[in-house]
Amino acid sequence: ASEDTPVITAAGENNSSQIKCPQNEKIKFKDPLMTGLDKDSDDDGMESLDLEASNKSEEESVSRSSSLIANFRLDDDCDGETRDLFIVVDDPEKHTSTLEAYITFRVTTKTTRDEFEGSDFSVRRRYNDFLWIRHRLEEKYPTHLVPPLPEKHSLKRMDRFSTEFLKVRQTALQKFLTRVADHPVLSFDKCFQIFLTAKAWEFQAHKKQGSGFLTRVSESLNNMSASYMMKNRPPEFALMHDYITLLSDKLGVMDRIAQRVAKEQNDYMAELLEWGPCYTLWANAEDQLAGALLTMSKALDECVRTIKELIDATDNRFAQPVKEYLLYTECIKNVLRRRDAIQNEYDSVIEEISRKKDEKEMIKTSDQTYSIGAFLGKDPEDVKQQKHEKLEQQIADMIRQMEYFNDRTVVANADLKADMERWHKHKQRDLKEIFITLADMHIAYYEKNLAIWENTIRTIQNKEHIQLPSTASINENQDHGIV
Fold first, then answer.
1. Into which CATH architecture does domain 81-210 fall?
2. Could you tell me where the Basic and acidic residues compositional bias lies (predicted)?
3. Which residue spans within 97-172 are E strands per DSSP?
4. pLDDT tens readout for residues 262-293
5. What tens digit of pLDDT does each residue of 22-57 get?
6. CATH number listed for the domain at residues 248-463
7. 3-state secondary structure of 85
């Protein structure tokens, strides 16, 4: 479909057609990991990373503690003054039944939208409910980018009821709802409104109303086949697919390396845990060195605390966001496949129209004397005329189908372009924040360790607290030993 084709809302389509497709505009997706390395590259629209931002004052620490935010920055373009839908996820609560134990979260909503029958709502939802609303949004808006949810089970945290796990899960669910609430189309969905406002029994009744399993399977198979059958994908979407594949590979490498580094850090922490008691036990046998040895043991205990803080902070503020963007790349690939399926239907109709037109031209010059109709006693010219009229009717019907699929393709392209522009801007900002936060955490970690060991040196050198044996006393002890 041409970008200059006007957007015509087809029957059954959603209101996403209001998003206009920019004419003669190419979307450039640039890798923030590579930007700046190539001096000749064109950095249109790319925000430069100010390295001096982390050192605003000589009196401050090198670490920008302000970037070590408790929660990862959310995807929103709107200021607090312009946003009209605020959602907070908090208060995890454990429920136990005869068959299972599960966690629910409180979802509090404040809004000024007229579509809601009030301004304040508070409901409790479990993870499966979040999963349901995401699937519903994907079904109703297949060419929009629905944010990902965190994985249901984590291999690292086997205890899904632990405080640490629930805090990470709560943050991820908060980000999901905030991103949906800030979306110009998804946030106005009726199912999303029911998710935020319906009471428990009403919500369970509404969940039972949905598309069947076989319908979802057939759509999935159609999308998978379309990605292989696509012959003339527009260059901008081919570029988008290549970029997402490359970004997914890079994030995957980062995730694997982060896991190896975390394992090495845990091994290092285990070694420190064994090292500290060695000094304590040694102090029992060295009266004159007891103070220094106990000081070393205390320093190692503090180092264990700092490395544990670094491991936990790295997982929450670096590893988890990287995994989240890995899930985001899979979501984009799925949307691209659904867009390809829509275009594939459009291309198939065009090919069928071309084939029918060729067949109609062949009918004009064909001899119907030996056709089946002629054998049944019909006049060959009448047979030819009937076939000609039948082909004309089929071509007219397929032209209407072509117009319908053309509208769907144009709307799908506009939906995906608009969402990708927003996502690309958010991703660029978020990845910068992730990297700056990681750097800040390591700076803070080494600053703490430096302070620990400097304080250890001062304590050991303070003779008022620790009396170290002099050289003369050591020689005297050696002489007594000889005697």
1. 2-Layer Sandwich (3.30)
2. 53-62
3. 101-111, 120-126
4. 999 999 999 999 999 999 999 888 888 888 99
5. 444 444 444 444 443 343 434 433 333 333 333 333
6. 1.20.1270.60
7. strand
